[in-house]
Amino acid sequence: MNSVRRSARQKLDEFRSQGSLSSGPPEDSGWDSPGGSPGPANVLLFAVKAVLRLRQEAGADVQEVLSAVAGGASERSDMETLVRALGGDMAAARALDWLGTGPLESVVALLDALIRLAGLREEEIDELLVHAQSLADEWAQAGGGLLPGLRGIETGPWDESEQGGRHAKGLLDLGGLRIPDDPGLDLRMDRGGTPPRLWGVTLVRGKETALQLQAFRSPDGPQWADTRARLARDIRARGGEATEWAGRLGPELRCVIPTEGPDLRRRRMPVLMLGCDGPNWLLRGVVTGTDAESGNPDSWVYSYVERVVVVPSYVPPSAASPSATDFGFALLRPADGPIPLRMPG
């Protein structure tokens, strides 16, 4: 959209003069352009999303953003829902029923406030809008929504039968999983059950972050939505917190779990739970440490999981499904249990 390259201030004034939209916007409302491409209002929405991410990485919270936006209590409530939804909170996104049809003024006011908070110069605002246009185009091509890249086609984790799995290089063979052999990671095999069996692997990066991976067979179809819901209920029942989030790999759980430290004092530990459904399997990752609380989509854990290959056909000489626990709560498993692993080499 060539108009994106106009003066950003002029563009904001142009949208501000349009006022609010009614539900069911006409074709020229600004949300959609002819041919199904994203309209200028959607471009502004992605500009808000981009600046929000920058502000969050700088340590700003929702209330700091809202304090810069004028309006009554009702407007601020809608604005808070919008901020949380654009940040990735899936519950807020579901509650925001006017998104894509509602008041442009709210989007414009929020973008204007964020620009002031970030202290962006005129040329930086223009660059932001050009970037937002490319994000909106990608969103439209993916069919909209909160979908990540197409697993098995554009990105991993991969199945052994898929092209990305068959041609993957630099992987360590653990039987049911083939994982990137990246330098600087400490690998620990996880055992459980009677007799003890290998059921997972934990990758530790320095003293900052640990990523535990486990794969499950799921012959009855995708399991992550159901498993995610049961995990959230289990964590909340034990006094923890669990928020469903739209992450780089799709829906994830950002959790805070009560635990006991070495000094026997009760603590609250941030935990990030990732999940990806593949053909007849579920790969789950549990992240603890710095990257569990940062919410950074550029974290190494995401790029690492995207390169993992799942081998559901692997069966060791004598396999038994373990019953493993970790972090003080049961790891809920699909009925057929985990895909077994073996020692590397």
Description:
Pfam families: DUF3710 (PF12502). InterPro entries: DUF3710. The protein is α+β, with helices and mostly antiparallel strands. The chain folds into 2 domains: 2-141, no CATH class; 158-330, Protein Transport Mog1p, Chain A (3-Layer(aba) Sandwich), CATH 3.40.1000. The protein is built from 11 helices and 13 strands. It has helices spanning 8-16, 40-57, 62-67, 73-87, 90-95, 104-118, 122-141, 163-166, 224-237, 290-294, 300-305, and strands at residues 158-159, 171-173, 177-180, 185-192, 197-205, 209-217, 241-247, 250-260, 266-278, 281-289, 309-310, 325-326, 329-330. The strands form 3 sheets. It has a 7-stranded antiparallel beta sheet with strand order 4-5-6-10-9-8-7. A 4-stranded mixed beta sheet has the order 1-11-3-2. A two-stranded antiparallel ribbon has the order 12-13. Helix 2 runs parallel beside helix 6 (104-118) and helix 2 crosses helix 7. The N and C termini lie far apart (54 Å). Residues 1-8, 18-35 and 319-335 have low confidence and may be disordered.
